[in-house]
Structures
1.
Amino acid sequence: MYARLKMLGWMLFLFSFVLFSGPFHLSATAEEPETITWLILDLPPLFITTGPDAGDGIADQIQKMIIKGLKGRRSETRVANASRIAKELNQDRKVCFAGEFYGNPAFLTSIPTIALPSHNLIVLKENAHLFGSGKKVSLENLLQNQDLIFGTAENRLYGPELDTVLRQYSGSKNVYARSGKDTLEGLLGMLDKKRVHYIIEYPVSIRYAAEKAGIWDRLAIIPIQENSKALPIRGAVRCPDTLWGRRLIREINDVLRTIRPTPEYRRIMKDWIVTPGNAEDYWKIHENHVLKITE
């Protein structure tokens, strides 16, 4: 009799263990934080993937601040080229990209993160006479000249004013689209070796890359006519236009509204974008075209 009672007691104990431990186990599994993959484009100084400044680019640092502000989620980063990033953002994946353009209605993006001076034409000084000797030039006129080769990254976007023109000449023999992760460094090398005649880039990006390559003093920067009335280029975070992406963008916007006015955030702009002589103008742009956009 005692043995039976003892056996029954063990059975009740095991039953209770299974009954009460099961739901807790399932609950813990269900509550595991999801993982967001942040896609990174090798485009210094927005994203810096190699060297002593790796991870300290403009978008790199903003991304870290956003990740810190998002609660209950894990994050990982992965370097990819522009084509791969565009493809994954158009799929139903848990990926985001902190280097997208703000204001493109075709994309799901956050409120603005940064404002940058517009893209310019970058050429060798010795060839500047082919491009108006430093005066403002028309991109459309240049693309009609089959003798001048334009170098770009595959699927690279430059903002609506320039993209509208570039779409008309996609696939032209005088447009070279480079793929791979080292697109800016590679294009600079091609420009230096005269395999392409001009590229388009942010002033802040080209200076960083050209100084690193030791050719900054050999380059000329020329304004582009189609950009003359363009607003400053503004960055944003992009996620897939899905239920998940829309929910996450709302949370990212909450984080950005909190972090954008902070001294830590302003320090990023000061370190990378503000140059001697343009501080007053730049902070006005930052105030009007970034901070005042809250929805």
Note: The radius of gyration is 25 Å.
2.
Amino acid sequence: MIVCLAANPSIDRLFGVDRLTPGGIHRPAEFAQVAGGKGLNVARAASALGAEVRAVALLGGHAGRWIAEQCEREGIELAAAWAEAETRSSLSVAEADQGLTEFYEHGAAVTPEEWSGFTELAARHLPQAGWATISGSLPPGAPADGYVPLIRVARCAFDSREEGISARPALVKVNAAEAAQLTGMADAFDAARTLHEAGGGGAAIVTRGRDGAVMVSPDGRAISGTADAEGRYPVGSGDAFLAGLVVALQRGAGWDDALRAAIGAGAANAEQPGAGRLDPDRAGAVADSVRISPAR
């Protein structure tokens, strides 16, 4: 069982247009809408890869009920805590040749009682996890260290700029921009090594988009992985990467093969509209082509 926490979920919408013109009227040629936010994207991708998954989410209002219904349609087991305020929405606009323009709501503040209800629910489900993922931002109103006690409950893969690395998760995964912000180091290998040490010796991974990812494994070995694959829809690829990683580890893969699986899942996600959606066969094919190299 993989348990995915979604403390700040979102309805994620994607519009595909030929060109985004400020002040203009646009009629999207493509549209996708998913129960999103990083935690639910991880859950969707892990489920697509064949894992047994349970999402634990903090939901609110009509939007929260839509997310719960969507999870049921997709066959994602959901345990939900409820807040009064509406769950947020996010919008990504994909231009044919210009990449993505993204709009992310912060979301409404949760009360101390609502946050406590979510953490109590999470603490009941986390001990059942072979792996747990905690990813994304905290909702407004949650304590700054809100993830810290949850990390200590399970073998956790942590993907967030929020406080939590000091709680020594088994794995830290962030993108290059987040790694630079957290460590002050622009070089991905240096940042990964720093995160490895700060996290008490757990695995540390820095993703670099089309340039793959670098990893320092728990034994301190530093490697990079790259593949010749890219797609038009990178939203959620980092979440699919994390899903591929923990699914592979749950199945007993070593760190090199887990990194291959993660890169394959991230690349497959980028080829389909809708965050956390992927073709598992395509993910496997890309994983087989990943090149692993030692740190320079």
Note: DSSP finds nine helices and 14 strands in the chain.
3.
Amino acid sequence: MIQRDEIQLSAEGVSLSFAGISALSNVSVEARQGEILAIIGPNGAGKTSLLNCINAFYRPDKGRIIFEGHDLTHLPPHRIAGLGVARTFQNIALYTGLSTLDNLMAARHLHMHAGFLKSLLYWGPARREDIAHREVVEEIIDFLEIEHIRKAIVGTLPYGLRKRVELGRALAMEPRLLLLDEPMSGMSQEEKEDMARFILDIHERHGKTTLLIEHDMGLVMDIADRVVVLDFGRKIAEGTPDDIRRNEVVIKAYLGEDMTE
């Protein structure tokens, strides 16, 4: 049983390149059980590439990624999801022709055990299993305050609500590690604050380890336990939000931008 603050995920010396152009260069990152670890950096710093290596959308050229003792480096994405790693994306990846409820139910497939025939006939164990999955999904709908759109077709929803549904779909997988790739991008300030509140509630209620990529530095500094900074594919700093605010190398990487805004 992993205890809080133990190392849950370790990316060790990860390098990745595309057509000779380096996206990541010898990047090492550790995420501790139950923390919110923010990964920040200017555009093109390699943040999303690192998340893509963790859940096997990309294969690193060098290095390895260990999650709870499992080497993820050569596993397919569905195996990594089965180990307890869930992901949201910069560009929302939902079933736009399905309802909110159906999108969340689709994410439960990893936990479905009834056979195909029983599922078709909706007999005995399959019916009980479906009820149990729906209870999990309904709890997530209540938690994310999306009861009013539970039957709405996702493709018709405003952008901010679709982002919330995508977070719900990740939660429906019951992950132990959440990878959130710019979950607040394109949102209004009010929507960002709501999303930040949900992320903090997930952290406080369930203790899920969260890797967060986000450009809104004010929100990052408010909710992250630790921050890793990438620039041109290299890790240039790591520490608490206060450490990062004062780090001259980080300030230079952001071209003198105020890290609190």
Note: The chain is about 40% helix and 25% strand.
